[in-house]
Amino acid sequence: MKIIVTENYEELSDKAAEAMLAVVKADPSAVLGLATGTTPLGLYARMIRDRAEHGTSYARIRTANLDEYKGLPASHEQSYACFMRKNLFDGLDIAPQNTNIENGMAADEAAECARYDALLEALPRDIQLLGLGSNGHIAFNEPGTPFGSGTHVVTLAESTVRDNARLFRDIAEVPRKAFTMGIRQIMQARRVLILASGANKADAVRKMALGPVTEQVPASVLQLHPCCTLIVDRAAASQL
Ligand code: GLP
User: Fold this and answer.
1) Distance 139 CA to ligand 1 centre (A)
2) pLDDT of 167 strictly over 90
3) Contact at 8 Å (CB) between 103 and 112?
4) Predicted confidence (pLDDT) per residue in 19-45, tens digit
5) Which residue among 23, 28, 116, 174 sits deepest, i.e. has the most Cβ atoms within 10 Å of its Cβ?
6) Nearest-angstrom CA–CA distance, 128 and 138
7) Taking the model in full, what pTM does it have?
8) Mean per-residue pLDDT, 178-189
């Protein structure tokens, strides 16, 4: 795992944008694995700014997102589908049909997981962006998830519900279940770019980068990825 430590969140976002834009500019039909959460917001703002300033085209780019809350329609303002439109896609010239995410409203969970598995198989990702949960999760793969997992429905850890409650009006509104891409599929991406910012991630960053590779720390599997870059700010790197 290559580790880049930055002074602060702004520099982290600059470096992340450099890495992501290098992929987009090298191959205008690249497949991007994308993530939600507050950490990639600076990166997404820079991608939009780069498009405005340099005209970088996303007309042939395709994307696959990591995860989606179960029970939220794509129109719900807290859905990850909505998050992606608001924070990235609306600022690019990307065709909605070229963006992919699990359908949180799918009645048949198994069929939806099989659909997304087949889609990911047909759409090998050139780069997979990840944030890091404070409990070491990646996407919604919580501690204990088998490394061989494909797309599945998870019951969110209590700590994840608490962490994500800040984005809802009330903790009671946070969905308890979600669809998530599996760890096997994250590991299939050609490159992985994982971002972590802030002191509350320092413990998870240390376990991910320096601890044993264990299913109890899902992100530790990235030590085994042949091309993984971790960009952390000073606060998140404080235990390295
Ligand atoms: C959620 C998402 C993860 C994300 C994590 C961290 O749980 N499912 O993909 O990495 O939050 O979010 P943040 O970047 O807001 O700390």
Assistant:
1) 7
2) no
3) yes
4) 999 999 999 999 999 999 999 999 999
5) 116
6) 11
7) 0.97
8) 98
